[in-house]
């Protein structure tokens, strides 16, 4: 045999071996028995391989684009369970003693606006947001006060002056 024929025969045999190996690999892959990893488990002698059993996690094992390995390799890890946020207890609405009318808006601690009574005016504190309510105290001119709440339109505020709660008209306060 010539040297060229020997090389051609060798190449032909190698191609035939590669073709047979490809066919065997394809059959194993389609049957779902090939795990694609070295050292993977092989069926024991006497075990039968069923081609009708779908691979785990696969809806249609006959789909053209499916491979058994892609199902496990592309699994998205489960998100950890979120701890539910505790339901906050409703903040009790304060009730200011001595007032005929309670405020419609309450300011949170740290968000309470401060005011100063205008110069030249001693301001009457009232039991409600209006001059028709009883006078329950008086705040001297230039005195600083902190608003605890307000009426609906913000024209009157509730303050605590010397331990007494009362309503002051915002028109006579500097903010």
Automatic annotation (TrEMBL):
Compositional bias per record (Polar residues), positions renumbered to this chain: 38-53
Residue stretches making up the SH3b domain: 112-175
Pro residues: compositionally biased ranges: 83-93
Top-level taxon of origin: Bacteria
InterPro entries: SH3-like_bac-type
One Pfam family it belongs to: SH3_3
Low complexity bias (residue ranges): 67-81
Cross-referenced SMART domains: SH3b
Renumbered residue ranges of the record's region Disordered: 38-99
Protein name (database record): SH3 domain-containing protein
Organism whose genome encodes this protein: Gemmiger formicilis
């Amino acid at each position: 045999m010539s040297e060229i024929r020997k090389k051609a025969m060798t190449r032909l045999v190698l191609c035939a071996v590669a073709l047979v190996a490809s066919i065997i690999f394809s059959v194993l892959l389609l049957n779902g028995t090939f795990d694609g990893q070295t050292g993977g488990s092989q069926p024991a002698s006497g075990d039968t391989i069923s081609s009708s059993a779908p691979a785990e996690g696969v809806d249609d094992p006959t789909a053209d684009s499916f491979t058994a390995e892609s199902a496990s390799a592309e699994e998205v890890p489960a998100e950890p369970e979120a701890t539910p946020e505790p339901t906050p207890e409703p903040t009790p609405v304060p009730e200011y003693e001595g007032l005929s009318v309670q405020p419609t808006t309450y300011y949170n601690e740290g968000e309470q606006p401060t005011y100063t009574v205008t110069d030249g005016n001693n301001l009457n504190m009232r039991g409600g947001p209006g001059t028709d309510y009883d006078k329950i105290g008086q705040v001297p001119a230039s005195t600083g006060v902190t608003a605890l709440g307000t009426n609906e339109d913000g024209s009157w505020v509730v303050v605590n002056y010397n331990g007494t709660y009362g309503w002051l008209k915002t028109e006579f306060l500097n903010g």
